[in-house]
Structure formats: C-alpha cells, structure tokens
Amino acid sequence: MLAYLVRRLALMIPTLIGIMFVSFVVVQFAPGGPVERVIAQLSGEGSDATARISGQGGDFGGGARQSATAGDPISSKYRGAQGLNPDFIKELERQFGFDKPAYERFGLMLWNYIRFDFGRSYFRDITVIDLIREKMPVSISLGLWMMLLSYSISIPLGIAKAVRDGSRFDVWTSGVIIIGYAVPSFLFAILLIVLFAGGSFFSIFPLRGLTSDNWAQLSLGGKIVDYFWHLVLPIASMALGAFATTALLTKNSFLDEIRKQYVVTARMKGLSERAVLYRHVFRNAMLIVIAGFPGAFVAAFFSSSLLIETIFSLDGLGLLGFESVLNRDYPVVFATLYIFSLIGLVVSLISDLTYTWVDPRIDFETREV
After folding, report:
1. Rg (the chain; Cα; Å)
2. pLDDT, mean of each 10-residue run, the chain (369 residues)
3. What topology is assigned to 131-366 in CATH?
4. 3-state SS of 48-65?
5. Are the beta carbons of 132 and 316 closer than 8 angstroms?
6. Whether the predicted model's global pTM rises above the 0.85 cut
7. Are 210 and 314 contacting, i.e. CB atoms less than 8 angstroms apart?
8. What is the residue extent of each domain of the chain?
C-alpha cells in the first residue's frame, strides 16, 4: 500500500501540470483579456477607468488618450486601442505580466503555485490567497453539510428501496426521487423562498447571508443555532438533486449484488438477512457509490453551488470563480483551478483508500496505476 501511495502522490505532479498547461493554452487563444478589458473600460468610462488603473501603479492621467502613430504595432494588437498612448498600453502589459513570453509566464506561474504564492487579483486590491480564504467558509458550509445530509439520507433510503424492490414503499419513494431529480436546484430554491422566506406564505428562515447581523453578540449556542438556521434553505435546495442521484445509484447497486450467486449461498448457509445484507452485500455494493464520491465532492464544494450562492446572496468560491472568468481576473481563475484540481486529486486518493476499508480484499499493490 505504501508503494501505491507514493506512486499516486508522484503522479499528482504531472497531472496538475497538465491541467494547468491545457488551461493556460486555452486562455492564450481565448478572445479578450485583462488588457482588453481595461481598454474597453477606458472607451466606455473614460477618466473613471483611467483613475482605477492609475491607482494600481500607472500614473497616466490624460496621457492615456494621447494619439498613437498610424500602424503602431502595440495599439493595433488590441481591439479598440487606437488613439491610446502606446506607452500606456505597454505599462498595462507590464502590470498584468504580458510583457513576458507565454512560456516564461507559465513557468513562473508553476514555480509560484508550488509555493502556494498565487499573487494578487488584477481588479481587487487583495492577494488571491486572502480572497480565497475569505470565500472559503461559505463553500465549506454549503458543500460539507450538503454532502453529509445527502449521503446520510440517500444511502439508507437506497438500501431500503433495494430490499423492498417493487413494493408500495419503493414505488412512491421512486416518484419522489424522480421529481426531485427533475426539479432544478435553483427552481426549488426559489420555491422555498416563496414558501418559507417571506415570499407569499411564511417568513421562517432568513433570505440572505450565512449569519445574522448580531451574530457577534450571540452566545456560543446562539451562534450555532443562527448558523444552521441560515443554512436550512440553501442546503435543502442543493441536496435535492444529489440526494435523488445517490439514492437511485445505491438501490441499483444493491439490487445487482443481491441477485448474485454468493448471496444465495450465504442465505443457504443460514445467515440472517441482515447479516447477508451488511456483511456481504454492503461492501461490494458501496464501491460504485464511493467511486462517484470525488466528482460529487468537488462539484458540491465549488461548482454546483453557484446559482444557490447567487439566489441566497452567499459569496463563496463558486460565485468568485464565475465572476473571475467574466472579469478575466486570471490570477484568481488559475488559483481556484489549481486548488480545485489539487483537492480533487487528493479526494480521489482518499476514495481509493476507502475502497480497502469497505472491502479489504482489494489490493492496490497488484494494480497498475
């Protein structure tokens, strides 16, 4: 097992480099960029945009609008840059790091990321690591409790449905699950707001934020209650789709195992139905559920919460990543991608280790990585 762990950890390095390289190349060919964004702001907002850029270290003032010479390669390289001072554009490129060749920028980025130095945001006066640290509590709260709620309900429900396959219980729970899977999480969130957050019926739960305004003055018990009180609607909205998927996956996996010959043999030996189910079927049936855990984990923490964060005014990593892509804030984009990828690889390794805990017969030492 130790040799397998070493190989997996060693493979994380080229995997991370490959992910970052592909993303970096895509960004190089993607239209737009931070320089183009500033130029567009200058064209649409004039001195206001110039003042913002000047505050980042370039003291140009009205000089940004000095006419460029006809056919100037610096100005013609960027759409809408005609009429801007070429020195201003060169300074913009220097501030954003685009005065260096692409391979040098990529190598410098990797060297900094190895040391977890993600630099500063292009358009926010804060370091990227501080920005991510600021948004992390929201994403952890949503992802952690959603996963715990979803798995703690869907796995026992899936087992119960498999044992009672074809019964009335199985039929009506399947109907509920199908409806839950078909309803988008954001639509269910809006429904919950209308019903329970001061829409047209009840005003039981808060509409926005992770804590109340007076949270600092509350006692420890009051803080815990207030925290979970704010999470009820967002977590319920996010857990609906994941709960449905995991429940059906668990049921089908258990049904497939229950019909196998070793289960019949165990029953013929006189083992109780509970012993057959949890001592023999469980560890085999749960492997497929565990296999899907890394993807579900990363999605729950960082991607599927985007709309929920927007609806409930929760400023987390999902919303941060989306806004960074729109604003071409590349340090934030690449840093979040790097962190998400690293967490995904670590969770995938933990998932493989969980296989051996669920089914000790699995031996990764004899498997090719």
Report:
1. 27
2. 78 90 84 74 52 44 47 54 70 78 88 89 86 86 83 87 88 87 84 81 82 85 89 85 80 86 84 81 76 67 71 83 84 88 82 69 57
3. MetI-like fold (1.10.3720)
4. HHHHHHHCCCCCCHHHHH
5. no
6. no
7. yes
8. 33-96, 131-366
